[in-house]
Specification:
The chain is mainly α. 77% of the residues lie in helices and 0% in strands.
Length: 43
């Protein structure tokens, strides 16, 4: 059995943004807002 689709989406988003996370161009608030915006757009 594979991972739930919601986990797969989170991992993909993390992979897409890994360079930003490492560079320090994102702060924790921006990351959280981006994650929530992605969740709401999937409703």
């Amino acid at each position: 059995m594979g991972a739930p689709q919601s986990i797969i989406k989170l991992v993909r988003a993390f992979r897409r943004n890994i360079d930003d996370y490492k560079s320090g161009s994102y702060n924790e608030t921006q990351v959280e807002l981006s994650r929530k915006a992605a969740e709401y757009s999937n409703l």
